[in-house]
């Protein structure tokens, strides 16, 4: 037992050197304990409005979100535009470059942490010295040359894990930038879908408005003819002209919004508005997804890129606490050098010219005016800030999902009501037109029926577009399915798998 004691001491020292890491060990925050996104349960499926692309949508927790969720809208033109945007978008290019920068910073620091620094140097000098250098102050000076070739090695022992905590923080930065890239990817694709839906809605509103104008112009011609024959008052003609002018006044705002939507799609695809060749979108060409995957609330924090990015910031904050703590403890630096020194360059590696040195230095902070403790408290405060921001991000994410789910339910009921209103307004207009021809109702009643039908048609189109847009918003709110993306896809899958990652540092 006495002979084993030195080995026990050596093993203990090695364990301290390699295993002592000060500061908090990161643990992933637990998912909120809840089984529902909304305060009151939502129906298993939404209301249906047959005949106007208003079939019921069903929420399924058994279905996972596909990586290319936008393909559920079954629009080849939309899919082609998104593929182009993923290749050309400067926003994605910037996010990818930032991720590469973070990875290279991690590699750079890993090299100095896990391996010693080795440098080779060569120097040559020509000097003049006085006789005083030889103890003869009155003697003439003399000249000499000195050549030196040296290889030096230096290494800092990470006794208290400050370097390892720094690497942990850099790895967290890589994770953060990786999820920022995923967030940029998701935001870009969702924005393209919603903007395409907006364009389709505006195009259909324009078409409906133009049809209404054409119909009302026919009515105007009819009223003018009746006025010429004495069958209508001049007030009826003026009222119909005002109605036509009022509807025409709605065209420029719609045309303006449509042009701006086209310009926005061009920019999303990485093209100038004047050079982009974009498809035209119509609501009739879009398919409303009937099955809507709905992730469990416990999985949302492992799927939303913004939550995972906030987790990366939290992880980095904990690592910085460890770095600040380690700076309060001793540091040991080891150095060694070996080389040759000679008065003539041709003798540089001759026998008897070799030189070498070994050194070790220890630095123990003693007094820094409270700097080190203040920096540690600042790091703890930064960690608390990141923790609060993480909780806020989670709350915002759950609110986002709840808002979209309730919006989808309301959208379906709105569309059903708007479809009924449009049908009733159309029937009312048909009956009123027939009654007006036979003189059973006044022209004011006909104008009112026209106005109601016009508004009902526009509102119906807007209700249809809202269902498409909010369906896309649900996929975005649930994380977009990036975890199901193939490795060879356009944007690399994030560094961690949402199901298996536990925050370990893997430089």
Helix and strand arrangement:
Elements: H1 5-19, E1 58-60, H2 76-88, H3 90-114, E2 117-129, E3 142-157, H4 162-228, H5 234-248, H6 251-268, E4 291-293, H7 297-300, H8 305-326, E5 331-342, E6 354-363, H9 371-437, H10 443-477
Parallel strand pairs: 1-4
Antiparallel strand pairs: 2-3, 3-5, 5-6
Helix pairs in contact: 2-4, 3-4, 4-5, 4-6, 4-8, 4-10, 5-10, 8-9, 9-10
Features:
507 residues, alpha+beta, Outer membrane efflux proteins (OEP), 4-stranded antiparallel beta sheet, two-stranded parallel sheet, 10 helices, 55% helix, elongated, disordered C terminus
Describe this structure in words.
The protein has 10 helices and 6 strands, in the order αβααββαααβααββαα. The chain has helices spanning 5-19, 76-88, 90-114, 162-228, 234-248, 251-268, 297-300, 305-326, 371-437, 443-477, and strands at residues 58-60, 117-129, 142-157, 291-293, 331-342, 354-363. It has a 4-stranded antiparallel sheet, with no helix packed on it. A two-stranded parallel ribbon has the order 1-4. The chain is elongated. The protein starts with a helix and ends in a 30-residue tail after the last helix.
Concise summary:
55% of the residues lie in helices and 11% in strands. With 507 residues, it is α+β, with helices and mostly antiparallel strands. Mean pLDDT is 87; it is low at 6-15 and 495-507.
